Amino acid sequence: MTTLLPAVLPVGLIIAIGFIVGRTLPLERSTLSQLALYILSPALVVDSLYRTKLSWASSSKLLLGFALTSAIIYGTVWLTSKIFKLATPLSRGITAIVMFPNNGNMGLPVATFALGAAGLDRAIIYMLGSSFLMFCFGPAIIRGKGIFQGLSLTFKLPLIWAILLGIGLRLFRLELPWELDKGIQQLGAAAIPIALIVLGIQLSQTRFQPKLNEFFVAIARLAIAPTIAYFIGRLLQLEILDLQVLVLQSAMPTAVNSFIIVSEFGGDKDLVARAIVTSTLMSFVTLPIVLWLII
């Protein structure tokens, strides 16, 4: 429990501040949401790629494991939605909840405390793969309307260009002049707090009454996803540390930015907001179990 407190309590504090702000100040949630999506999150991705020291060659299997795990999760949610004939907003909300783990502001600190610096390096690579999925293909997945329209939408978003810029800086070992990297770092550092504040504002406008839906999707996010990741990792014969990171990051609660994606591109926003809080609270119980099983 003490391992999780430094990661979870700051998250709760910022959400609480956003909740108070939503009740007391006339801020436009959509403006903050767009700020996070179009400016701050791209800066976070560029900064992470610019600074990471782990080679891409040593991370290829980990990224493959993440991609296969995400594909199976998406296929499972899609099939379930078809079988039970779920409404489109509900199906989109569940997809965002289950597919996008909070491996940034929660996953990175937990990986650091549990697995040390080597675990953190791998967790950063996982986060970049997750960011690519969430912000480059997430809008296409959530909005639907066909692959070509989805890709057209994807290339209109700044995240894919931020990833390409970060990879370019990394591959060619370019250094930004005039300490511009510090400006990008400061912008990126603001991405997570702003996203948490947006969530708090939404919660202040949402009547929070946890239902079975939230618990079911939280269990899928916290238990089923890491189980899939474990078997994928074993199939790929990942080294022990890579397998631990793949499972641990897949066991994180729902990402705050999933709410940003759903807010902008469609889906059940209230369900996603409640599921983020529910899965985060439930992770106090599930993450120690996962850590006990993999370490």
TrEMBL record:
Membrane-spanning intervals of the chain: 7-25, 31-50, 62-81, 123-142, 154-172, 184-203, 215-233, 245-263, 275-294
Protein name: AEC family transporter
Subcellular location: Cell membrane
InterPro entries for the chain: Mem_transp_PIN-like, Na+/solute_symporter_sf
PANTHER family associated with the record: AUXIN EFFLUX CARRIER FAMILY PROTEIN (PTHR36838), SLR1864 PROTEIN (PTHR36838:SF1)
Annotated keywords: Cell membrane, Membrane, Transmembrane, Transmembrane helix, Transport
Main subcellular location: membrane
Signal peptide positions (record): none
Protein family (similarity comment): Belongs to the auxin efflux carrier (TC 2.A.69) family.
GO cellular component annotations of the record: plasma membrane
Pfam family of the protein (one): Mem_trans
Keyword Ribonucleoprotein among record annotations: no
Organism: Waterburya agarophytonicola KI4
Domain of life: Bacteria
Membrane-related topology note: Multi-pass membrane protein
Matching Gene3D superfamilies: 1.20.1530.20
GO biological process, one term: transmembrane transport
